[in-house]
Amino acid sequence: MKKFFFVATIFCINFCSENQISSYNLENLVRGKLVIKGICMNYVIQVLSDNVDGNLIEKSWTNEFTEISYENVFGLGSICDFPKDIDEGEEFSFLILEEKDQICANCKAYSPTPKKKLFIKVY
C-alpha cells in the first residue's frame, strides 16, 4: 500500500509540474514566419508578434544575394530540431530556448542569414 501512495505521489508531482510548465510556456509563445528556407538549414525567421526582446533579433536585415530587406528577423540556431514540413512563407508558433549544442549532420553550403541566431522549439 505504501508503494502505491509513493508512486501516485511521484506521478502527481510530475504531472502537475508538467502542466504548470506547459501553461507558462503557452503564454510565452511567439508567432513567426519562415521567410527564407536556405540551403543547409540556413533559415531566416521573421518575428510577427511583439513579445520578443528587440535585442535578440535584427531590426532590419538585407539578404546579400537578393537585396531584399526583412524586418525583425533572426537566423535559425536550432537546426537539428526544426520541423522539415514548414515551408517558406508559412507561419508558426515557437518558444525561444537557451542556446544549446547542436549535434546532427549538416552541410556547410553558404546561404546568407542574419548574424543573430535563436534556438527555438516549434509548437
Characterization of this structure:
The chain has 1 helix and 6 strands; from the N terminus they run αββββββ. It is α+β, with helices and mostly antiparallel strands and 123 residues long. The protein has one domain. The longest helix is centred in the N-terminal third of the chain and has 26 residues. The termini are far apart.
Key traits:
123 residues, alpha+beta, five-stranded mixed β-barrel
Task: Summarize it.
By secondary structure, the protein is an alpha+beta fold. The protein is built from one helix and six strands; from the N terminus they run αββββββ.
Number of helices: 1
The radius of gyration over CA amounts to: 18 Å
Terminal CA distance reads 40 Å
Order of helices and strands: HEEEEEE
Biggest sheet descriptor: 5 strands, mixed, barrel
Helix content: 10-25%
Tell me the strand order in the biggest sheet: 1-2-4-6-5
Number of strands: 6
Shape: globular
Q: How many structural domains are formed by the residues?
A: 1
**Low-pLDDT windows of residues:** 2-21
Structural class: alpha+beta
Percentage of β-strand residues: 25-35%
Q: Layout of SSEs?
A:
Blueprint: H1 2-27, E1 30-37, E2 43-47, E3 58-62, E4 69-76, E5 91-97, E6 117-122
